[in-house]
Amino acid sequence: MRVRSFLIGVAFVYLVFSILSVVYGSFGYRAVAAFIGCSVLLYMTTKTDIGGLRLAQMLVFVVLVIFAFSIFSLQSTEGRSLFAVLVFLGALGICWFSIASYSTFYLYELPFYFVLGGTLILFLGFGYGPAEFNTVLSGYSRNGYSAILLAFAGGYIFSRVYRDKKISLLLLVLVLVSSFPLYGRSGIAMAFALVLAVLCHKSIKLAALFGLCGVVGVIFSLGSIEGYIYGATNFSAGIESPRSEMLEQYANALDVMGLFFGVDVGRVPIILEYGKNPHNAFILLHSYYGLAVFPLLCLFVVSLLKLFVDGRYMLLVVALLFLFRAFFDIIYLFGLFDYLLFPLLFYAIFVNYFRPEFYLVSSLEERL
Description:
By secondary structure, the protein is mostly helical. It has one domain. The chain is built from 20 helices and no strands. Helix 2 crosses helix 4 and helix 5 packs antiparallel against helix 7. The longest helix is centred in the N-terminal third of the chain and has 23 residues.
């Protein structure tokens, strides 16, 4: 138990440095967090059993392929493609430890309460709106803040399902409420989808009743709702955004070499205009690693199918929503907060840890 408690403390330090890295935009904090996570991953590989060894071998193969391809973009990305692999490994280490030691309450739920509570204080207590939330994180806009809040919400949902506990609908509604001052269209839509998913998870009848009441409410107050949405959110800009043009221009820039090894986003005019930020995690990953990300994406697809076959529909919806959100921002996939999502995206590999009999053993060492 002392080993488990110590490693939970280490994981908390990882989380603190991860948060500091986005608040202050410091590479040093980010590097410390990645180092801590990689150290936890190294410990996990030395304490694993045969099943865990298979897990480690599969992921090591995928990471080695990605690492090899990162060399081709090392110069154009100024080393970021290589460092992102270390970030990926660090997040993987925290994820692996969290589910293997049954510590998701401490590392998934408690941080969610803290982040949501802090957001509500800024919103309700200090009157923060879109302009103010744009300044909270250094190097990240309010969309980045929204993405982090939603990542913790997704981690909370996973942990509650994983521990066979009830999901609080109220907390997810508060996430939705908090998404409005964050202004972003994708964030509001995703928060709303999470609320609906939790409703359906609790009761299909309750979800249907909620939907019926919502339709009636919209009919009788359409003008007010439309005025608020268009006045207080970015839906006033319509559905189209520069992101679709970024995707189109990046696709047009692909040639044979670019398809296999990725294209420098600095060569894509519209992405260059936005500071080389493609606002799409999949574009960024392909830019860094080319087709080396294909085995990783295959693991995601297999995990989604496995979630469906195992009847874990709530977790499947959450995973799909985050993959969808990754099309609109680069904060997911190879980020420090990915540990919140990896149990779902790598479910096919971690599936043994989801079986109740796995926790009938008496010690952490035996579990690992």
